[in-house]
Here is the input.
Amino acid sequence: MKNIHFLILIVLLIPAMIYLFAFNQIYRSQHTQKTMLEKVGDECAGIAENSVANMTAVVEFQKLEIQGRKFNVMRRCMADHAYFESPKWTAYAKPMAQSDALNQKISEDEAIENLRRSHMVIFKTDSNQPIYWEYRP
Here is the structure.
């Protein structure tokens, strides 16, 4: 009799454990879904990478041309999806660019462009700094 109770307990416990495991997986996947910005950003980053995939550079100038093309494609793709440079980000980045320009002995325009290029590929919000992209339908 004791064995039958134990067997019934096992038979009931296995489906319950399977259900809990499956529910946990569904719950996790729902809470780790990407935001629209992350989806669009990943898509545009892929398009930008593909736009320069067959290009090769021998001299430094060619490397800069390839990099410029890649980020131009990124900007246009994001604009096609109604994402543009955020004025909040611009206000945040200006003092940083001025400081970088002095420290690196480069122009402020080059410093702000360097910041743009590094921040335009960040698609997750951070409480320490404003996100580069702003959705404007």
Q: What stands out?
A: DSSP finds five helices and two strands in the chain. Residues 2-31 form the longest helix (30 residues).
